[in-house]
Amino acid sequence: MSEGFHRIFSTFFDPGMIVQALPEVLTVGLPNTLLLSLFASAIGIALGLLVAAGLLSGYTSVRLPCRGYVDILRGLPHILTVYLIGQGLPLAGLAIFGGNTYGYAALAIGLIESAYFAEIFRAGFQSVERGQVEAARSTGMTRLQTMRHIIIPQGARRVLPPLTGQFILVIKATSLVYLLGLTASQREMFAIAQDAAINNANLSPLTAAGLVYLALTIPTTYAVNAWDRRIRGARSTHAVEGD
Amino acid sequence: MSEMPERRQTGAHHGTSVRFDRVNKSFGRVAVLRDIVLEAPGGVTTCIVGPSGSGKSTLLRCTNLLERPESGRILLGEIEITAAGANVDAIRTRVGMVFQHFHLFSHLSVLDNVSLALRKVRRMEREQAEDVARAKLAAVALGGLERRRPSDLSGGQQQRVAIARALAMEPEVMLFDEATSALDPELVKDVLGVMRDLATAGMTMIVVTHEMRFAREVAGQVVFIDQGRILELGPPDEFFDRPRHPRLRHFLEKVL
Amino acid sequence: MIWSRALLFFSFALATSLQVNAAVADSPETNVAGELRVAYRTDDKPVSFLQDGKPTGFLIELVDDISRRLGLRVTYVSTTFAAMVPAVQNHQLDTAAFGVLVTPKRKAVVDFTTPVGYGQAQLVSRRNAPLAAIEGADGKTVAVTTASALIPLLQKIAPKVTIKEFPNIASSTNALIAAQVDGLFTGNATAGHLVEQHPELTATQTVESGINALPVAKDRPKLLAAMNQALASAMKDGTFTRLFVKWNGSAMAIPQRLFSDYPGMPQPAPDAAHAAR
Predict the structure, then answer these.
(1) Helix axes A60-75, A101-127, angle to 10 degrees
(2) At a CB cut-off of 8 Å and minimum separation 6, what does B72 contact?
(3) Could you read off the pLDDT of C136-189 as tens digits, one per residue?
(4) Looking at CA atoms only, how far is residue A131 from chain B in angstroms?
(5) What is the ipTM, given to two decimal places?
(6) Domain span at residue C271?
(7) For the whole model, what pTM was predicted?
């Protein structure tokens, strides 16, 4: 019985292995994970804003392609899209990032995430009261000025909690970059842990990386939830005052 | 209030008029406005009364093109605003609108609420725009509240900020859509006071209201709309003291 | 009544499970009695790959032969290179049917049979930008399968070459063709196959990396001994030689060291290759 327990323990939680793996996970893997998450999110947010505007367009010829884009990218497994774009673009002669794996990975993950970001933005923009828009247009502000000075700043407040939640998903999605090939210094947390796990034939390095992922994601999740509650609370009291 | 005397110089009956020429509007299959013919003369306050759902708000919203009539023409002075290719944004700078629920920009300070359009539409420098905004806020007796958020103000204060926001653009016509309906009774007076001052200063105003006393005292003409049609129109004393249409008589019995 | 029936059922189940241990008497203990569970790779042609839905290849047929000699049924389970050693160590699988380089770290967690080959990794590059050798290819990037034992070796002989890790040969080949890397290292049999499949690629330098052998869990000494014995017979009676020629053709020679490891192993007949084709 105790031998069985010991084996389970040493398979996942070998303290020596965890301690041995942590420095590289933290000094090489963590910065790479964050770097890739930020790049992918930047691409995702920029594209997501555009697509969200398209989703809200009055023109069917704009709205339908945007809808299709969102449905397709949300409907495919991440791993498939990362392979198709990350390996497919250079194979097809579109080596837009040269030999830089991160470029393709950030683009692939960014494209996937842009579909999710677009839906978040769409919901955020739609949550801005119609009256705010009418008031802005009544002063002579153009559609674009209203978007920029009223809808985006107001929508952004409501959108920030779900946006941050999505960022957590991006952090996790970046582990797929290993599919596209990484040099030693490019490896992010998962790749480093995977290598160490294989070389030592023990899963504890993966546990080490898992702990770092959790240290990133769990506090963020709770912070976002608290934040979201505060915004919702503020909105409902405000609504009572307004009426 | 400080800038009103200046307004007075333009004088009553010289302001911009609004004319509605056989205006029709429907939402889906429901006809909301039917063959509306009406002139709101320059420098005069036109009050529109009627039961809820009668189309009075829609008529107001057509006046700054928040709604588009299906047929008919609306003229602002000599300009046909319903013409194809009319510059909607430019027209709206000439027509100020005040809403029932204020619709102050909730993410901006009081000062920014009033100065935003000056900066973005009139392309004023921030400093100049804020000077104008301060003056407009002082004119509605809200000096000193510039840095507050709309949510920190009472309903009456919020509505006066909304009036200042509309006035900042120096409009030729002001539209009030049940501006006091959402206010607590004790706050109504301040807002009506500001509107009364504007009327006295010679602003062309179209006011959709349930405040019959205000209509009687301030309006140059009062219009009764029911089921999308104008059923009666006249100077206030005639309108209130000698109503002709039975539906108006019925309406007045209920509200007075 | 119900109780006695349940008891009957229980003792039957117990007996069946005890049989598992009883079976060990003649064939060596494996993770599932009477069965040899073997890791294979779907993409390592011609050594270990999937064709028409069935695992096939040089080492697959060799393991087939070994298990016949052991009286065990074979089940193949596809794994990545990376997942294999832990799977053998943890009794998910009994052994692997692809070239596993024997390294000190791996030897610390699993045992290995006697050699089935000598790792000869070959450098593959694009014909229009060929790399003759890894030495002197400073500043170039070379693809290697994740956690391959080649990585430390390459770092030693060519420290200024950048090594990029890929999860499998398919993705590193794509990267090479798309000029995302300048070369890739893989076993020489696979390299030969890649060059055949992709005329734009060329195979150059061969690097000898060490002993290739089949992994067995440390606590299965009987299985290891039985496999070694079966392997020795397959070497001696010419089975290995025949399979080697069948899968690698005549162009590739059986590593000389194997002949000294297994005295009496027959050389391929001069015309065997032609016969095999």
Answers:
(1) 120
(2) B20, B21, B22, B23, B24, B35, B36, B82
(3) 889 999 999 887 778 888 888 888 999 999 988 888 898 999 889 999 998 887
(4) 6
(5) 0.89
(6) 24-116+214-276
(7) 0.69
In this structure, are C201 and C74 located in the same domain? no
A142 burial (CB, 10 Å; 0-12 / 13-18 / 19+) is middle
Q: Residues of C with CB below 8 A from A200's CB?
A: 105, 109
Place of tokens 């000190």: C104
| Residues in A touching C181 (Cβ below 8 Å) | 99, 181
C59-91 pLDDT tens trace? 999 999 999 999 999 999 888 777 788 788 888
Q: Do B93 and A139 touch (CB under 8 A)?
A: yes
pLDDT digits (tens, 9 = 90+) for B54-103: 999 999 999 999 999 999 999 999 999 999 889 999 999 999 999 999 99
Residue-averaged pLDDT of chain A: 86
Nearest to C107 by CA among A200, A194, A3: A200
CB within 8 Å: B151 and A136: no
The rounded Cα A159 to chain-centroid distance in angstroms is 14
Q: What is the third-level CATH fold of B4-94+171-255?
A: Rossmann fold (3.40.50)
What residue type is B179 in one-letter code? A
Q: Which residue has the tokens 């898992």?
A: A210
Selected residue of A97, A102, A198 to mutate for chain C interface (largest C Cβ count, 10 A):
A198
Chains A and C touch (3+ CB pairs under 8 A): yes
Comparing A24-38, A43-57, A222-236, B99-113, the range with the smallest average pLDDT is A222-236
Domain residue extents for chain B: 4-94+171-255, 107-170
Chains A and B touch (3+ CB pairs under 8 A): yes
CA distances in angstroms from B2 to B7, B132, B171, B198, C13, listed in the order given: 10, 12, 17, 12, 99
Whether chain A has a CB inside 8 Å of the CB on C152: the answer is no
Nearest chain B residue (CA) to A130? B103
DSSP 8-state code for residue B83 = S
Euclidean distance between the first and the last CA atom of chain C, given in angstroms as a whole number: 67
The first and second tokens of residue A141, run together, are 């502000």
Residues C55 and C162 in one domain: no
Chain A residue numbers with beta carbons less than 8 Å from the beta carbon of C82 are 194, 197-198
Q: Is residue C8 part of a domain?
A: no
- Tell me whether residue C12 is in a domain: no
> Is residue C259 classed exposed, middle or buried when 0-12, 13-18 and 19+ CB atoms within 10 A define those classes?
middle
Q: Tell me, yes or no, if C181 comes closer than 8 A to chain A by beta carbon.
A: yes
Q: Distance between CA atoms of B208 and B210, rounded to whole angstroms? A: 7
Instruction: Decide if pLDDT at B26 tops 50.
Output: yes
Least Cα separation, residue C167 to chain A (angstroms) = 6
**β-strands C73-78, C162-166 pairing:** unpaired
> DSSP code of C23?
G
| Interchain CB contact of A181 with C (< 8 Å) | yes
Phi, psi dihedrals of residue B231, rounded to the nearest 5°: -100, -25
Confidence of residue B12 (pLDDT cuts 50, 70, 90): very low
> How many structural domains is chain C composed of?
2
Q: Which positions ≥6 away from A170 have C-beta within 8 Å?
A: A37, A40, A41, A44, A109, A113
Query: What does the block give as tokens for B225?
Result: 């709309």
Closest chain A residue to C110, measured at CA: A201
**Residue C259 belongs to a domain with what CATH number?**
3.40.190.10
User: Do the beta carbons of residue B177 and residue B100 sit within 8 Å?
Assistant: yes
C79 touches chain A (CB under 8 A): no
- Residue entry with tokens 């016969």: C275
- Torsion angle defined by CA atoms of residues C65, C66, C70 and C73, in that order, rounded to the nearest 10 degrees: -60
